Amino acid sequence: MYNTTMPAPPTQAPACKKKAETNESENLPPWAKITLTSSEAEIEKLIARHALKDAEVTYFSQVEPILQDGPQCGLVALSMASQEYTKPVSVTQLLAEARVRGFTQHGEVYSVDFMGTLAAEYLPDHRPDVLVDLQTCPDTLTHALAHGAMVLIPYDSDFNHAPCLKRGHKAHWALLVGLISSRQGYYVLARHGKSRHLACWPLRDLIESNGNLEEEGTARHAGGYVIPKGGVGGQRGLRGRALALHPYV
């Protein structure tokens, strides 16, 4: 069993306007005070694999994996998030809507704003909130997770799907469904469209990868992807941004 008390942010995290309070354990919502069951054995293995000391699982949402077909990672992540809704939305539905709105051609989504619009339309029991300046204020992300939100975040995906630095040439979307605190700092639990397995990554690596998203890869753009005004690294793009999905309660 894990201690589910909300941990204080690591000392290296800067102070931010939306910074999580360091003493909020008594005010955490019910979904943040969980006890892992045998069905979450995968989390146990991930904690052991990363040798996380004094691990505290602050939040975890059970979401079934969906594998992507083509460059649909963002739409797949949003479809997985909709499993918390009474009427889950399929990737096919999201793809059709995204095409009608001019957000995509082949399933790619290179804008957090585009994703927020789709979330507002198809997840009416969740409030989409665009998180910005994640490199300066990572606490906005941990605060959202610790208070029951899932987070859609773009990053560069390495050969093993872990965060890497390719300037956006390997841009991918993940759905953050859990938060772990340990002596080594924060780790996040994630689902994405290229694996059936739950992923566990250091939060600092994910945020660094998110902050390096500058441009789309030329090889991947050959099919004619939709890029928002200002580009991948612009104000409507991917860099330094994520989408929190807060449940209405």
Automatic annotation (TrEMBL):
GO molecular function: aminopeptidase activity
Pfam short name (any one): ACTMAP-like_C
InterPro entries: ACTMAP
Start and end residues of each stretch annotated as Disordered: 1-24
Name the UniProt record assigns to this protein: Actin maturation protease
Keywords (A to Z) from UniProt: Aminopeptidase, Hydrolase, Protease
Keyword check for Protease: yes
Any one GO BP annotation for this protein: proteolysis
Organism phylogeny: Eukaryota, Metazoa, Ecdysozoa, Arthropoda, Hexapoda
